[in-house]
């Protein structure tokens, strides 16, 4: 009897409440679709104005009077903000130079819209920007994720804020986008000369297999880090490995002009540079790829010893 009552009650629940739940879900989905379409259309209008028609007066249909644009500049830069006036000025400045053409695309499936309430919504997506200068082939110059706040005013959605987050700034078709450091200038010329001389002396022992002199120039606490073979913290093992694998077989050459030297207060100095290793079994002139190294030199009185090495290939 109890089981029959439960079934009847559950059936009654389905009959009474489920249709209402389905209608509510359907209405919610419909409202979500309407919001998505409305904001997607606004997005399309914004970039059509900015990159095609240049009719900035039409931006009144997209941007609120107090619109603010925030653009981050990756890990290496601060986030910058622009008022609506500055944002519109930048569009006008770009439009004035017709030698440049910009194209923007949204990553397929990335556009989203979220209702905060009836009069406020959030729109997010991932975009890619492409620039063509003076008719040349276009290059990708940005990939970013944007997050916008929209508010409905007088029945029309207006964007109040946009935040663009840099997702990717290095592109295969634009090697120049990589960070390029300023030219190196020795902060302490005597120190630079001293470490450059130590580098020459040390690797002369390497090339001539003068292992006793190399041993004397190596700190007891040596740590040698190699990106392929791992870590060696034994001076004896390192010298033995050089005798076994290097002597008479390999010659090291410093890449001219590549050495940089920086002081380490109350310790010594760090040397950074590029060098090449030549296999003596190969014909003279066989190309050798340059690789980066970092050496930390410890100073004890007037004596310099190699204490840390990082070798990268």
Automatic annotation (TrEMBL):
* Keywords assigned by UniProt, alphabetized: Signal
Q: Which SUPFAM superfamilies match?
A: NTF2-like (SSF54427)
Respond yes or no to whether keyword Plastid is given for this record: no
Ranges for the DUF4440 domain?
48-159, 195-306
* Keyword Signal included in the entry's annotation: yes
Q: Which residues form the signal peptide?
A: 1-24
InterPro entries, per database record: DUF4440 (IPR027843), NTF2-like_dom_sf (IPR032710)
What protein is this chain from? Nuclear transport factor 2 family protein
What is the native source organism of this protein?
Answer: Chitinophaga hostae
